[in-house]
Design a protein that fits this description.
alpha+beta, two-stranded antiparallel sheet, globular
């Protein structure tokens, strides 16, 4: 990957309005900065989330965003990619469940990954951008992991409700800690003050 492309295709952390970037581990920050969205295999992307059993992880709780905007004026050369992939529950990833060791009775682990169709679409974007760059095209873009769609029961249990998130982009490299010890109760309180809610709706 050329330096110009590396500078143009930024890797970013998209945490929507749920988690503060201060919760991101130093390892997570470094590993995200070293990612190359153009060469990673989307089929190997996986997210592992450890939560309290009271926290409901809904479809679309984790998303992967892929954006690219070409700088070319010609319509024939123009590329405008802005895609949000929902990362769906994948119960087949044993490595994700082995990350956290012995769990407390109230803790659960959820593993998520891209569908085969979305992984294929992701590859198509990679090939499209690579061809564009090979022809001298320029552009900027981003790749990010977002965590947005969690909900909590009401009343909430008195115990702490903590969340840990691990991310994998390459099976050989394995998972790395993305977010650590996020206090869901504190996040829910902050959202409530803004007029939003994490309360589960039936």
């Amino acid at each position: 990957m050329s330096k110009s492309l590396l500078k143009g295709l930024l890797v970013c952390c998209l945490l929507a309005n749920l988690f503060a970037c201060s919760s991101m581990s130093f390892v997570g920050m470094y590993r995200m900065s070293q990612m190359d969205p153009m060469t990673m295999d989307p089929a190997q992307i996986s997210v592992a989330i450890k939560t309290d059993q009271a926290v409901e992880i809904k479809k679309g709780a984790a998303t992967i965003t892929f954006r690219y905007q070409s700088e070319d004026q010609s319509k024939d050369q123009s590329i405008d990619i802005d895609k949000v992939f929902e990362v769906v529950v994948d119960n087949q990833n044993k490595a994700a469940y082995e990350l956290f060791g012995k769990l407390k009775p109230t803790e659960v682990v959820t593993s998520l990954s891209l569908t085969a169709e979305d992984a294929q679409l992701f590859r198509g974007f990679q090939q499209q951008i690579a061809a564009h760059k090979a022809n001298g095209g320029k552009g900027t873009g981003s790749f990010g992991l977002g965590l947005t769609d969690f909900c909590l029961p009401e009343p909430m249990p008195k115990r702490d409700l903590m969340v840990d998130v691990y991310l994998q982009t390459d099976q050989q490299d394995g998972f790395f800690k993305f977010l650590s010890d996020v206090d869901i109760k504190e996040q829910a309180k902050a959202l409530k003050e803004k007029g939003n809610s994490l309360k589960c709706r039936s």
